[in-house]
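Example complex used in Figure S2.
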Amino acid sequence: DTEVTQTPKHLVMGMTNKKSLKCEQHMGHRAMYWYKQKAKKPPELMFVYSYEKLSINESVPSRFSPECPNSSLLNLHLHALQPEDSALYLCASSQGGGLEETQYFGPGTRLLVL
Amino acid sequence: GENVEQHPSTLSVQEGDSAVIKCTYSDSASNYFPWYKQELGKRPQLIIDIRSNVGEKKDQRIAVTLNKTAKHFSLHITETQPEDSAVYFCAASISLRGYSTLTFGKGTMLLVSP
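Predicted assembly (228 residues):
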């Protein structure tokens, strides 16, 4: 089963709110990724976790805070966001063996910051 | 870092025609080349991929070719159908210890008219 799930599907938040996005996979994958996608653009990598350790942070502002509680779960904590942070946030996972790995995407959370 | 160029940005064909999308990449360390289809409001979905030791791969109406020397790879869709209408992204992947990185092209919007 190549399924990555994400909650919530939609989120509207004010600039002073704190919210979290959740991602889950049960494929035994050990690498998990957060991407941001604006309309009519390709996904942009934000963070990579490998074996529950943060491996890449693509210079993402600190108002985005990732967390990997275990090998199946990935969270993205949001605080004091700006309207330009409105986008589709995609989670992905891959095996973690590091050899020609397929990344499987979740359905995304569509975020609107007011 | 890796740079992926994708052409054309839009492609309109009649049902039954063939469609070809071309990509180039810059980093010879890239060793895996997936293609994703993204319908409006949905997740990127892997449709075919090719590894660096293979020159061509076919799956029913979809085929991908890779020329490592020229750093080119292409997606071919034959007998197009209206349900093929979507945005297609090529990507080049570099495998690292425990995860991979994906660099996407800017996408091709394919419109198949009945």
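The radius of gyration of chain B is 14 Å. The first strand of chain B starts at residue 4 and ends at 7.
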